[in-house]
Amino acid sequence: MSGFGARLRRAMDERGPLCVGIDPHASLLAEWGLDDDVKGLERFSRTVVEAVADRVAVLKPQSAFFERFGSRGVAVLETTVAQAREAGALVLMDAKRGDIGSTMAAYAEAFLAPGSPLFSDALTVSPYLGYGSLAPAVSLARESGCGLFVLALTSNPEGGEVQHAVRSDGRNVAATVLAHLAAENAGEEPLGSFGAVVGATLGDLSSYDLDMGGALLAPGVGAQGATAADLPRVFGAALPRVVPNVSRGVLRFGPDVKALREAAERIAGEVRDVVAG
Ligand SMILES: O=c1ccn([C@@H]2O[C@H](COP(=O)(O)O)[C@@H](O)[C@H]2O)c(=O)[nH]1
């Protein structure tokens, strides 16, 4: 199996760069006419996989919405990951794990060790216990051919108080995370396996060096107010490495499989157009 960066590049080239989120909010379950229980969760997730897993590059289950139901919700998450991978999508597990190194090693095994029930192509992680605390996840990802997406500049307005904080060397925290990622990806072609999460909602990011060799997961398109048309202004020359994420902006069209598919294809088309210039 080739490394995650190479697989992601291939998927983006073949299918377009869109990532669709599987976020079974209680409000969406209700809108879909489903009960807010494990059966509703299972039906919701299976429907999203059926609608888009054979056509988008990446599916991103949001672990929180599955964990909400305890072990039975996590069992649905396991099945969802397996079904999505089987249908040909790369699965990015959005669990935003981050802890001291020894505990981080266990989180990494949960999601990135081949054969683990939640084995995924990539995992979102938080560097806010110090970038070095992620080392066990970086090394297991390398061994397993998986990827990481490290929170750098998140899409929420509260993120700036931590991420824009300026260090004693004059560089801010987010720029430091991006510099660590550039080092991880050095020499990896055509795309490094260590991506950054950078919100599509953030406006002009030209003061940051986004040329860090990996993909930029860009949440915020749709329900958080960003559009495909914003992407060139936000990401500039890094645009060909951007993987925009849309969750509610697609999911609100369910439960009809055709309507979900059309919504994803419409946004994928808009993204393709802006990337093509
Ligand atoms: O900075 C971040 C990091 C992660 N997310 C996650 O992406 C989706 C966004 O969902 P929408 O419905 O498209 O708003 C969700 O799972 C978040 O936890 C993010 O929004 N921002």
Task: Summarize the entry for a quick read.
The chain is of the alpha/beta class.
Give an account of the 3D structure.
It is an enzyme of class 4 (lyase). Pfam families: OMPdecase. Keywords: Decarboxylase, Lyase, Pyrimidine biosynthesis. The active site is at residue 96. InterPro entries: Aldolase_TIM, OMPdecase_AS, OMPdecase_type-2, OMPdeCOase_dom, RibuloseP-bd_barrel. There is one protein chain. With 277 residues, this protein is α/β, with parallel strands linked by helices. It has a single domain (4-276), classed as Alpha-Beta Barrel (TIM Barrel), CATH 3.20.20.70. Helix content is 44%, strand content 16%. The protein has helices spanning 4-15, 26-31, 38-52, 63-67, 70-86, 101-112, 135-144, 160-163, 173-185, 231-235, 248-251, 257-276, and strands spanning 19-22, 58-61, 90-97, 122-125, 147-153, 192-198, 214-218, 242-246. Strands 1-2-3-4-5-6-7-8 form an eight-stranded parallel barrel, surrounded by six helices. The two termini are 32 Å apart. The mean pLDDT is 97. The structure holds ligand LLZGTKA7. The ligand O=c1ccn([C@@H]2O[C@H](COP(=O)(O)O)[C@@H](O)[C@H]2O)c(=O)[nH]1 binds at residues 21, 23, 62, 94, 154-156, 197, 199, 219-220, 222-224, 245-249.
